[in-house]
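Q: Could you fold this chain for me?
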Amino acid sequence: MSRLYGSVQGDERSEATRTAHRTITAHPRGWDVGVKVRGYAADGVDAFDIEITGGSHDARIPVVVGTVEGSGGSVRLTLSSRFGGGTYELTPVGDVEADRS
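A: Sure. Below is the predicted structure, expressed as structure tokens.
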């Protein structure tokens, strides 16, 4: 069974899915801006790196936003220093508490 799973859907078309064991990457974008997410499993933890990218008309260098990690029901967001840094523990109901470690 695959560890990673991704899906994408455009307009009214049917959904397309992909599975992977080690890494999975998605890069949705418009003309001017996009987002790239790279998922991977490391030491039993699911992790996703997030970057802001240029769109199809803009080849700017990606800007790292941060990493989301999850294991055993806990989810942690670590922001890059460009976005103020810090680590945030996400509770099951979606509230965010700043750990700032």
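A (continued): The CA atoms of residues 45 and 71 lie 5 Å apart.
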